């Protein structure tokens, strides 16, 4: 067999998902494992969303609404946008793909930070574009270096805010200053997958910039139902942008890209904001408790505006990750991200957090990283 393989496709390294719980239990012979590696919502979806999805199961022989009219309208009401400023996707990562398809051609340049969400760069590789990667500076986006790297070939700039994996946040004033230093021909994509967990007064007013497009670059916000709403398994997200940008994305969007159950579940979740608020409060409380607990073990917990945070474990993070697996606790080693002594953990339920701390204490002692 001879395949016409394209070099830029062959060079792509597939996205590495977190280890599933059932795989861990099978490989390591443990039971009741907990997963704190993928920034999932441990409290799950709204019961209203589950009920709505269950009621819709008998309609699976029907195509979903190709325009996602009801969900688009509900999202617009929730965030104060207009429906024509919303583009829904099969997860917010599909909206990333739309942006790259619509605006990036061969040899066009796209700026991203490192570390950040790996899919930005992969979609650019698929398109045959050029990734320009700017290292974080003190665990924050280096906006000055990003600005300096812009050329007349730059089409998109991706900034995850809060950043994954560091949880750091860009301030309002520094974001405004950043925008004013960029050419109007560039589109700035602010991935706000975790912004629900940040305090309102610390968030960028994205809609202000979307509607103040004169003399400024176009700005796009990416949001998701996977995190704060607990619907990761349904894959539904959205982008907020100027209607002219949205029009281009709809031209490359496949019909029926958001499935029936995803539309149904997300719509019901927006009608149960009490559950959403419970997730936010519980995450904040758990993040504070965990930070204090791991600090008392001799590690360093880094401040975060998301539902996860980094921990300097004072030793090889991959060895610790592997030791934690035998305790039935899945965390994420940051060695591949350039932080060999760090792990990233998701804030879990109170019981999961306590179990994590117990396992961490035992593994730190066994490995001799810190004295406890």
Automatic annotation (TrEMBL):
GO terms for molecular function: histidinol-phosphate transaminase activity; pyridoxal phosphate binding. It is an enzyme of class 2 (transferase). Pfam families: Aminotran_1_2. One of its GO terms (biological process) is L-histidine biosynthetic process. InterPro entries: Aminotrans_II_pyridoxalP_BS, Aminotransferase_I/II_large, HisP_aminotrans, HistidinolP_aminotransfase, PyrdxlP-dep_Trfase, PyrdxlP-dep_Trfase_major, PyrdxlP-dep_Trfase_small. Its EC number is 2.6.1.9. Belongs to the class-II pyridoxal-phosphate-dependent aminotransferase family. Histidinol-phosphate aminotransferase subfamily. This is Histidinol-phosphate aminotransferase. It comes from Desulfobulbus oligotrophicus.
